[in-house]
Amino acid sequence: MPQVQGYHYPSPHHDEHHIAETRRELLADAGLSEDAPSTPETFVAAIEAAYRKLAASPSRIVLATLDDAAAVPERPNMPGTIDEWPNWRIALPMPVEELLRSPIAVSLANLMVENTGR
Questions:
Q1: Is 88 left (phi over 0), alpha (psi -120 to 50) or beta?
Q2: CB 32 within 8 A of CB 41
Q3: Cα dihedral sign for 3, 7, 11, 15?
Q4: How confident is the model at residue 84, as a pLDDT?
Q5: Residue 6's closest CA among 75, 105, 59, 70?
Q6: Quick one: CA torsion of 47, 53, 55, 58, rounded to 10 degrees?
Q7: Residue 39: what pLDDT?
Q8: How far apart are CA 70 and CA 87, in angstroms?
Q9: Contact 52, 115 (CB under 8 A)
């Protein structure tokens, strides 16, 4: 699964129907309408809702990605590509130390602990 914000941007390498369907589901989980504007607040609400759902799953291991904590729209890896996408070479928008103190990262860490008990 790409990072959550990646579902808010079209990609030439993905099925647009699948992306639109997943975006609707993410927005619904966040209590937002299908036509919610693509704003930072919308992205944060969708990211938090996705991780709340993940944390509530019966999985024994759940992880949050730095890409979601930074709310980056670009995918770090595009399956099925070799040279047409910079796979695993997209830098985070800020140093990791700064990222881990960001409001989104703190929120994700808190909701994962609250919802998993770990």
A1: left
A2: no
A3: positive
A4: 75
A5: 75
A6: -150
A7: 85
A8: 18
A9: yes
Are the C-beta atoms of 84 and 58 separated by less than 8 Å?
no
Q: Please report, as a single letter, which amino acid is at residue 31.
A: G
Location of structure tokens 């770990």? 118
- Both tokens of 75, joined, read 């995918």
CA distance 78 to 33: 28
Phi (first) and psi of residue 91, to 5 degrees: -75, 150
**Given this model, what pLDDT does residue 91 score?**
83
CB-based contact 26:7 (threshold 8 Å): yes
> In the numeric block, which tokens belong to residue 41?
């607040």
Helix locations, 30-69, DSSP H? 40-55, 66-69
Sequential pLDDT tens for the chain (118 residues): 455 655 555 555 556 777 778 888 888 999 998 888 888 888 889 889 989 988 888 888 888 888 889 888 777 777 777 777 777 777 888 999 999 999 999 999 998 888 877 6
